[in-house]
Amino acid sequence: MTKPRYLTKSRFKMATECPTKLFYTGKKEYPNTMLDDPFLAALADGGHQVGELAKQYYPNGFDITTLDYDEAEKQTLDLLALDEVVIFEPAIRFNNLFIRVDVLVKKGNHFELIEVKAKSYSSQKDKDFLNTKGNVSSKWRAYIFDVAFQKHVLKSAFPKSTVSSYLMLVDKSATCETDGLNQKFVLAKDEHNRKGVTVSSSLNAEDLTNKLLTKINVDKVVELVYRKELQTGMPAYSFKDNITALANYYQEDKKIAPVIKKKCKTCEFQCSVADEENGKLSGFKSCWKEQLHWSDADFNNKTVLDIWNFRGADKCIEQGVIKLVDVEPEHIGEVENKNTTLAPKERQWLQVEKEQNKDTSIYFDSDSMRNEMASWTYPLHFIDFETSAVAIPFYKGMSPYEGIAFQFSHHIAHADGRVEHAGEFLNTAKGEFPNFEFVRALKAQLENDQGTIFMYSPHENSYLNIIYRQLSNSNELDKNELCEFIKTITRSTNSSKENWHGDRCMVDMLELVKKYYYDPATNGSNSIKYVLPVILNSSKYLQEKYSKSIYGSEGVIDSINSLNFKEKVWIEFDEQGKVKDPYKHLPKMFTDITDHDVELLSEGDELNNGGLALTAYARLQFTHMSDYEREELKKALLCYCETDTVAMVFLYEAWREMINL
Ligand code: SF4
User: Model's pTM, two decimal places?
Assistant: First the structure.
């Protein structure tokens, strides 16, 4: 028997991003860039405990766990025969629409439909989920659409009932009443390889007194959604008509004509070269061929989607300007820069121009970089943090989603050219809040001189601001000392109550890249994960130095100590003579997940490159692992973080060489 093709919550969500996706979803021939492993996805997402916490607020609720559509629907209808009942995951079907509601409360003829999300809500900032123009705020649109869809299905299935709809969200202003709450929700795979959360028997009433989740009625905003047109590219006009139309298209497996836009850049139906060689199909290419009448060869051209940080892509596409060869300066916009450094629009045009001229040479503003370097004090310190934000607090008095800094690595480069892996920190102990020890260790490593400190992206600055606030509210004996230290090496962030700019404020290498350095081989990405292999390919100096086994060795000329590697050769060439990407040749963080998932978790944009590390942290905190597995994972984490800081050193060394210092 063929499986019924229902429009579910997740399919509807996907269709609201782009309705054409419905045609590709679930088809083996169209691979997608979502994580293969749902358990891993739950860990990476970080909000896995929240759904289980929500259930604890309804101690008499019935949980429907079966995945079988018919069985789940049958169990639901049996329970709904009761006059008053609370059901978790009830299955509601209406024609070809099918939903599993997070929490459904039935009281006579009235339903409360509650959608639980691991997203923080602030009653002051988020209020009624509307923007200043009175439309649904883009931040909340997907969540409100989700509830609106479910309410429509429920109301259609039970037309004589009344329905109130709610979002249950994480209240960032709430504080936890007890210690160790987060360790009472352990993640384990269930028999379907889905996430399953085990709740400790020690969870008690006190743990739940101060509610960390808040339930907000969204009926008004849902009504607003029903009254408005959904969006361009949809098969119908109103929200409800679109639900019916989308469900019909999906049921009949008919494709909704694609409307290509900037959103295609992040479309999950893109296919790797290897997958294509194995006969798989790229949904992305199908759409673009259909709309633009492109051939396979056209995809060898760079497009407006490749331009770094470019907001004008949609406008260009509307005008039929797709390939970079067709872009004119006016498409990028006027360059307002009066400084010597590269303004964002100049950088974008530089990228276009180099592509148009087939110019693969590196742009490097050596004069400005020389001036920058002249302001640095040796020894130079390169640091990188690995962080996470855990939905349910570790300790009493803490709020949800406190920033957790669990790891750093630290390299030093001396004026005479010596490099050392000077230190590191890692605390993944279960249920232990690592931040204060983290900052103590960082202080001990950085306070011995006045050398310039480098980070890559403002992430390190933001996290030290978070720890500053946490320390200020703590009873740590050395909190004043630690706070003063933080102030010397950071600048205050916008959300800070105080203003400061430390004398030894960290230098952001990402900003230096943006202002002074562009290698067309990065294809516009400035993430260290892309910049590292590119600089290793372009710098003969690095190739010569690091093709020897000096890293992690002793007693040889130029030897560099390492806390995790032994005689590591960073430069190895592939068959095409290109330097192999060091990030792809590190010890495996997880041995039980597919290369596809590793690749996805490793991908990072400029501001978010810690997917693998934070997933590893979540695994160490919230799952059962053997001691051996824990140790192996910790070793891999240490290697990854060390690679992040050595990558910064490589970049510095290459630049230094390029300005002939
Ligand atoms: S490539 Fe673009 S149009 Fe096609 S499914 Fe993806 S987002 Fe939609």
Answer: 0.90
Give ligand 1 pocket residues (Cβ under 6 A): 18, 20-21, 258, 260, 263-264, 267, 269, 283-284, 287
Alpha-carbon distance of 289 to 287, in angstroms, equals: 5
Residue with tokens 């296919």: 271
- Closest atom, ligand 1, to C-alpha of 21: 5
CB-neighbour burial class of residue 640 (10 A; exposed 0-12, middle 13-18, buried 19+):
buried
- Measured in angstroms, how far is the CA atom of residue 611 from the centroid of ligand 1? 25
Q: Which residue minimizes the CA distance to atom 5 of ligand 1?
A: 21
Spatial CA neighbour of 235 closest among 225, 227, 243, 226: 243
Asked whether 114 and 217 are in contact (CB, 8 A), the reply is: no
The residue whose two tokens read 């742009």 is 363
Q: Quick one: which of 8, 20, 7, 11 has its CA closest to 233?
A: 20
CA distances to 228, 387, 543, 583, 607 from 526, rounded to whole Å, are 39, 20, 21, 15, 10
Q: Is the dihedral of CA 298, 299, 300, 306 positive or negative?
A: positive
Residues 6 or more apart in contact with residue 325 via CB below 8 angstroms: 301, 355, 356
Please report how many Cα atoms fall inside a 13 Å half-sphere around the Cα of residue 268, on the Cβ side.
20
Please report the atom of ligand 1 found closest to the CA of residue 233.
3
| Ligand 1: centre distance to CA 232 (Å) | 13
Q: Which tens digit of pLDDT belongs to each residue from 264-321?
A: 999 999 988 888 999 999 999 999 999 999 999 999 999 999 999 999 999 999 999 9
How far apart, in whole angstroms, are the C-alpha atoms of residue 90 and residue 96?
A: 16
Residue 565 pLDDT level (bands cut at 50, 70, 90):
very high
How remote is the CA of residue 277 from the centroid of ligand 1, in Å? Answer: 21
Atom 4 (ligand 1) nearest CA: 287
**How much distance in Å is there from the Cα of 585 to the middle of ligand 1?**
32
Closest CA to 523 of 378, 311, 409, 354: 354
- Which residues sit opposite 517 in a β-bridge? 364
Backbone Cα Rg of the chain: 27
Residue nearest atom 7 in ligand 1 by C-alpha distance: 264
